[in-house]
Amino acid sequence: MGDPRLMVEKLPSVSIIIPTLNCAKTIGSTLQSLLSLNYPKDLYEVIIVDGGSTDDTLTEATKYWVKVLAEKGASANRARNLGVSASKGEVLVFTDGDCKIPSDWLVKIIHNLENGFDCVGGRVKAANLHSFLPRYLDSSFFNPFPTFSKFSIINDLKPFNYLATCNMAIKRQAFLGVRGFDEGFRGGYDDHEFLARVLKAGYKAAYDPRIVVYHYHRERLGDALNQVYWYGKGLARFTFKHPKLKLVNMLLLGVTALIAWLTFTLTSLIYFLLTGVNLYLYISLLMITMGYASLTAGYILKTRGVITALTYPILDLLRSIAFTIGAIKGFFEAISISNFKSVKHTGQIPSYKITNHRVVVSLAGSTHINKGYVTTPLFSSEAFIKSFVRPQGLNHAIGLLPSTV
What is the pLDDT of residue 79? Predict the structure, then answer.
């Protein structure tokens, strides 16, 4: 793609939108890095949309010159949609409250968009490599984030070649054209689903490995397993919405194979305990050994470490099982939903309050007021709509406030 330095005469305005939930430990680092970007300060704004944090996320966020909105119980996708409807940028950029952003991030994003693409993203690397589990997740063959080192134009979805919502940008017109994020997702594959609609609508997407964010990966095994469990649940909704995608068939094949292996292993064990015949149990153990040996050999080549090569396959297996359990539960839940393919956005139009030049929003009866500041009513957003075009399904048409960045 050539030199990522910008050569355009007029730079576009940018809105950076961050959904948060209990990110008190990392949100300060995220915002500090965003406010240090080498992009004209008057051309980008940062918008936090909190989903009801019970820690000090909002307190930390309001220390910085950013807009802060809050809606208790808002999913990440709902928060992103709310952030967009409160934004004014020509380009919409998404990241998360547990990421660190390099100073040239926006420059590289805009470079790609100016080269004819409508939606772009890049690599996600671990920010906390000092911990064992993040090192594993960063090196895993089943890394939950895109890590390819080569530039690619995305024409169709593949298992590990997609754009993560913690490192994604899209032109406003394209975002409105696909009607925003599906707020029904509360697990994984929401980024796959969004990109599927972007591609289906005819917009151009690209993955550039030079567009990097550093993500604080899960440091506890239970959290990592819970993460992939929810990814599995998200797969169910993704499958029902896009059943004809090749990616869906590939993922379902993998899940089916793992379910078959787990079923065979369990029944073999029960059969052995009841009859004493261990032939089928031996076959199951042989399958486990072959899979483990293959992964171990792969990790030896990849990490050059014996201990990591011996432990990483076990973690892969545990995460695969958690993912499969989530997928099974997700599909059972999906059966009871009659209108699974629809994208529903619900809520009330919020009213803004401004607090010491930092925007705070009161939504659904939940008001966040920062001690030490004077809070005064501002206006009803519905009466202050300027040029924002409300996409079908988005019930929030929020006033375009002046940038506070």
Answer: 95
Q: Determine the average pLDDT of the residues in 248-275.
A: 82
Which architecture characterizes domain 1-219+346-405 according to CATH?
Alpha-Beta Complex (3.90)
Could you tell me which residue, 114 or 263, shows the higher pLDDT? 114
- Helical residues (DSSP H) of 242-348, grouped into ranges: 246-275, 279-303, 306-335
Residue for token pair 């911990």? 131
CA 276 to chain centre: 48
pLDDT above 70 covers what percent of the chain? Answer: 80
Strands 44-50 and 14-20: parallel
Environment class of residue 273 by beta-carbon count within 10 Å: exposed (0-12), middle (13-18) or buried (19+)? exposed
Tokens of 298: 């792969």
Cα of 141 vs its chain's centroid, Å: 19
Q: What are phi and psi of 174, to 5 degrees?
A: -70, -40
Per the listing, tokens 């065979």 go with: 264
- CA 81 vs. chain centroid, Å, equals 13
Cβ-proximal residues to 316 (8 Å cutoff; 6+ apart), any chain: 140, 141, 142, 295
What are the structural domain ranges in the chain? 1-219+346-405, 246-335
pLDDT at 30 over 80: yes
Q: Is 166 exposed, middle or buried (0-12, 13-18, 19+ CB in 10 A)?
A: buried
Query: Mind listing the pLDDT tens digit for each residue in 387-398?
Result: 222 333 323 323
- Closest by CA to 157, choosing from 92, 227, 251, is 251
pLDDT digits (tens, 9 = 90+) for 210-246: 999 999 999 999 999 999 999 999 998 898 888 888 8
